[in-house]
Amino acid sequence: QVQLVESGGGLVQAGGSLRLSCAASGRTFSRYAMGWFRQAPGKEREFVAAISWSGASTYYANSVKGRFTISRDKAKNTVYLQMNSLKPEDTAVYYCAARWPGTGVNSGSAYYTATYEYDYWGQGTQVTVSS
Fold first, then answer.
1. Which of 6, 22, 70, 71 is a plausible cystine mate for 49, CB 3.0–4.6 Å?
2. Which CA distances in Å does 104 have to 82, 87, 107, 117, 118?
3. What does the buried/exposed string (b/e) look like for 43-61 if buried means 16 or more CB atoms within 10 Å of the residue's CB?
4. Greatest Cα pair distance in the chain
5. Which residue, among 87, 77, 93, has the nearest Cα to 37 in the 3D structure?
6. pLDDT tens across 61-106, in order?
7. Of 130, 19, 114, nearest in space to 71 by CA
8. Cβ-based burial of 36 (10 A; exposed 0-12, middle 13-18, buried ≥19)
9. CB 6 within 8 A of CB 95
10. Which pLDDT value is given to residue 102?
11. What DSSP character marks residue 119?
């Protein structure tokens, strides 16, 4: 079992920055692929960024590429999402997710971009970007 707790959300002006954190419990966290998703009101949850269990591979949605950076600190069991040059359209609840890459759909992949590919989810943290 893996438990995920997001933090770092808040209200920021357009052009500003925030860093989200996702603290994970579980001895095998370092072997999980991780991802960030977001969900705006009235919209489906969408992929934002993903990172492999080793941290060597990352992948981003086109809408955030060049502005957001995903990283992980295995010693702290934490995954981060650094968000720069924020825009009002980035406003959403942000969720982190964990996936054991050894089994299940698309097992063996370096990272995952679909909600159904993830096994565990956090409760989310609100990010609001004002214009």
1. 70
2. 29, 35, 5, 8, 9
3. eebebbbbbbbeeeebbbb
4. 43
5. 93
6. 999 999 999 999 989 999 999 999 999 999 999 999 999 888 777 8
7. 19
8. buried
9. yes
10. 80
11. S
**How far, in Å, CA of 98 to CA of 104, rounded?**
13
Give CA–CA dist 1/79, Å, rounded.
Answer: 17
Tokens read off for 44: 């489906």
pLDDT at 105 (0 to 100): 77
- CA-CA distance, 99 to 129, in Å (whole number)? 29
DSSP codes joined into one string, 30-91:
GGSEEEEEEE-TTS--EEEEEE-TTSS-EEE-TTTTTTEEEEEEGGGTEEEEEE-S--GGG-
Question: Which percentage of the chain shows pLDDT scores above 70?
Answer: 100
